């Protein structure tokens, strides 16, 4: 794994890289990784010319790889899924915490929806749900269960998407909405939410709303989050009503 | 979205790109995407010099983006998660379909494990599970339920990982193992599997094995897969014992 940091001219870099690959081959190395920060974009072309391919990129760097031996390439896969959460938060008056969004898909549509958001790389699903609710509505919550999830495939960019419906228990009740993304945030009676027109016209929204409604009556087993080994950042989600470790 | 295909020299490309960005700005365009196949690696540097950043990369292309207006960048997130499956397949003699792997983490360890594999971009979790079992063992199966899933965060490359434990029903019983990856494949009594030393020493393996054992006795509600809208590639997973659409 070569983590390039200092600027270098490509006519100096290319012969150095060639000599290194030859040395790594003699040493019996298999997979070689080169991380090029975006400031070193001039080194992308010479790296590709030495037989490297792209592995993945983030905003500020490109990772290239080269599998040296003749055996099949055993390099790990690139990330394929964007992960999102929707938060079902109900108070003890059977009111649900809902928002209207300013931008994106729901812009201009008069739809009350769960607070939603993207799970960051390295972030736990249960943590992301609590964070998004706090950011969008100012409400403090505790993660309880995952009630359902949906997998979709995006035409655009070819990536896939996993969306987890999380039930959270509210720990505070006074809403302070985020102004940049959220047009309105309110506690709304659950039946009003379930029966809104949009849900009746969109099956997967209808199913999710009705699953939450079933859960609100106490008769639905979702997946709770357990850390099997204390200390390790590693959550296992399973039906905690039916299986007690 | 500019999908570059034909080779071009960078001194011709750079002024063309600059003129285009200026035109797009006048037209009120917001996000601009440029897809550069790896053969056009010479155009990465001039694209970055025009203010583009990396969005993501696959083996054979790099996607760059530029958000033109002064408003906050509303470009979609890059994929952050690798998704994998493990397949729990039991016949009616209470024997589980297990494999020993030749390479990777379990190489040299004497561990019987579920057939596992990576869910491809654009592939449904339930389809991936059936495909992996077929590839590794030759057994035909039908997807039943997701019993649990685990989220972990990888040090290496910074990506996160979602691993879904899928219960499948076998439709055939004669094993034909794949030679390149699989050292052994066999039907093994479930209790022998649950009690193997490795599981007792690794809590998340132990939990998963015991959840499967609980399920084998019929008293565990996992998540089944339903397509809310016929036609659309879009699965919703939820507790089908507790909620009937």
From TrEMBL, chains A, B:
Residue ranges annotated for the Nudix hydrolase domain, each copy included: 80-210
Transmembrane regions listed in the UniProt entry: none
GO molecular function, one term: NADH pyrophosphatase activity
Taxonomy, superkingdom: Eukaryota
Gene3D superfamilies xrefs: 3.40.630.30, Nucleoside Triphosphate Pyrophosphohydrolase
Family: Belongs to the Nudix hydrolase family.
Protein name: NUDIX HYDROLASE RELATED
UniProt source species: Salix purpurea (Purple osier willow)
